Amino acid sequence: MISFFTNKKKYKVNDSEGLSKIAALLIHAAKIDESYTEEEKDIIKKTLLELGAENSNVDKLISNATIIEENSNQILDFTKEIKSAPETDKIKIIECLWKIIYSNENADVFETNLMRRLTGLLYIDPKIVGHLKEKIKEEIT
Fold first, then answer.
1. Nearest 5°: phi and psi at 82?
2. What is the pTM of this model?
């Protein structure tokens, strides 16, 4: 009876569907300023590897994620998978998002708006998100 109420889908860090959704979110963040650079692609690859993607599969994963991102009209499709991720993975993802945003050394209004929305959608403490933002800004300067 209790199993009826429990979440049947457990988050797996090496789940290709979950990693594709994460990659799609990262690509969306990279494209939001209308400039998707090689540096941003490298940041995304590195983060996917840290989250458990196989090195031999990461390019295919990014290719699939690009298609997912292009065919999606809202970020809710991407955040559903991430909500069930462990807190440490969520923090890695948020840190990666800030690295992508500040890869061109500044954040525009669309990028900061995206991060505010993601903070709420992923149930992450805004203080943690702010701390990660400042950490990345210091690393860049």
1. -75, -30
2. 0.87
